[in-house]
Amino acid sequence: MPAATPAPAPTPASAATRAARIAALRALPKQARTAVAGLTPGQLDTPYRPGGWTVRQVVHHLADAHMNAFIRMKLVLTEEHPTLKPWDQDTWARLADSAAAPVEESLATLDGVHARMARVLEGTPAAAFARSAFHPENGEMTLDSLLEIYSGHGPHHVEQILALRRARGW
């Protein structure tokens, strides 16, 4: 595996930007529930784009990714410059839990993970958002950069589901 290209040093976020990002994290579980409300099993098993994951896999991916995000954030807060483990999201999406489990299982996970993530971040001193970690694929990351990534990650996937619903008239 080639060495990671060093990422530019992340720019610290303002207190207002952090608060907005944390609010986005708090809002995600409800947005995800709304996005899949009323969908049939067949609709949940429809890919959001040709060759893409099904809606069901997207919901389970959100839980997987945001559980990993929460652990990464806690590692950054509790260890000196930890190494953050990459994970193969496509392989995870093919496992039985992502391919067939009820979406409610991952929606419930999002409820708990996001409540805890927001609580931790809201209780974190401003200076701690500059704490850093190394990611083998992405290079240096800070708590601020993780917050930026994951506050946008969920809405991105929710929009994929909503776009499919609009396109199909669901």
Question: Could you provide a short overview of the structure?
Answer:
This protein has 170 residues and is mainly alpha-helical. Helices cover 63% and strands 5% of the residues. The chain is built from 7 helices and 2 strands, in the order H-H-H-H-H-H-E-E-H.
Would you give an account of this structure?
The chain is built from seven helices and two strands. The chain is mostly helical and 170 residues long. It has one domain (15-168): Up-down Bundle (Four Helix Bundle (Hemerythrin (Met), subunit A)). Strands 1-2 form a two-stranded antiparallel ribbon. A hairpin with a 3-residue loop joins strand 1 (132-135) and strand 2 (139-142). Helix 3 runs parallel beside helix 6 and helix 3 packs antiparallel against helix 7. The protein is globular.
Helix content range:
55-70%
Provide the number of structural domains. 1
| Class by SSE composition | mainly alpha
Order of the strands making up the biggest sheet: 1-2
* CATH-assigned homologous superfamily: dinb family like domain
CATH topology name: Four Helix Bundle (Hemerythrin (Met), subunit A)
Keywords:
7 helices; single chain; Four Helix Bundle (Hemerythrin (Met), subunit A); mainly alpha; 2 strands
SSE order and pairing:
Blueprint: H1 15-36, H2 41-44, H3 55-78, H4 89-94, H5 96-100, H6 103-122, E1 132-135, E2 139-142, H7 143-168
Antiparallel strand pairs: 1-2
Helix pairs in contact: 1-6, 1-7, 3-6, 3-7
